[in-house]
Design brief:
With 380 residues, this protein is of the alpha/beta class. It is built from twelve helices and 14 strands. Helix content is 36%, strand content 28%. Bound molecules: S-adenosylmethionine (SAM).
Amino acid sequence: MSRLTQDLAAGLDRLTKLVLSQPIDKTADPKVTVRPVFLRGGRMYQLERFRDNKAFQENLDGESLLRRFEGELDGRYRQALLVTETESAQYSLNAKGGYKRHGGAAAVPRPAAAEGNDRQKQYLIPEGEAVPALVDLGVFTRDFRIVRAKYDKYRQINRFLELIDQAFREDGREELTVLDFGCGKSYLTFILYWYFAVKQGRKVKIIGYDLKADVVEHCNAVAEKYGYEGLRFVRADVSRDVLYDQRVDMVVTLHACDTATDYALRYAVEKGADYIFSVPCCQHEINLQMKKGGELDVFLRHGIVRERMAALLTDEIRTLVLEDMGYQVDVIEFVDLDNSPKNLMLRARRSGKRSDKGRALAREIAARYGFTQTLLELTK
Ligand SMILES: C[S@@+](CC[C@H](N)C(=O)[O-])C[C@H]1O[C@@H](n2cnc3c(N)ncnc32)[C@H](O)[C@@H]1O
């Protein structure tokens, strides 16, 4: 076993990157890198080979990586760089085919500002993961790098997926029906399908609903292109149209406009969906109607304060309704504020315990301040 293989094996748990360059012959790929990726909650290693300006990736567990390294790569590159969380060393191939190590400098500590990169390593869909549909949707470049302008959305959908994955890992069901209301360009919808159906091999049916016919048409074309049989998109107004009438496991919304979120929540409740993950946005309804009526008047004096308070009140009323309808609900910040100001997620799990108390309180507030709220009205 060469010095390099030994050091790689010893530092595998702390590996940050390995770069192999200057191959000894033309049959080897000009450059190979290895970096850790986090998949299905576990640490894996992405082996990336570069040839003819293209990158080819494979994810391997630690043991397979070491076997592959020893069998195919060790001794075929003149230069190697091995970086772990604690040190960084260069290796050069000597005449006997072994590696000489140069230095062993402490690795440069990652600055606080690089936290985003740390975060990225833990994404379920890391940059570089070969998800071709994300290329068609304009989130990834052709070599699976994130399109800069889409970085915020990419973080949102990864985080959204992470939260859902957490819930389903504990749940363990193999078949899954998910509806996405106000799916728009459907980055989230595709990610969910890819992760659960393609990557995990579960039997998944996902339907995305949106008002926009052109977007729906494009999303259906992309789903068809990749043979995603369980994924389809339907043009519908979720406040009026008849939607899927079979059993539904989960309803998701990501920034569905204003009261579209309420219709999605009402649908989820009526269908008895076990999970709801909803990130509301544009909560205008209460803001447009609210009048003075009591202690909350202090929040009505300045436009921006009024707007934010009305948005929070809207989401809190939604939470009260969901709790009454038999859901256990958390309100969480699903991404940082600097990523999106619309960063609250209502995360609900069906418990079956019903009540009227929450709606009674919400109705009292609505009557006192002179507004109606769609979900409250829909669940009378
Ligand atoms: C801000 S976009 C969000 C899209 C996507 N979920 C995302 O996060 O990228 C909101 C989407 O909701 C859709 N929408 C709004 N009201 C709707 C309704 N009543 N029925 C169906 N779709 C609706 C809009 O057409 C739009 O595509």
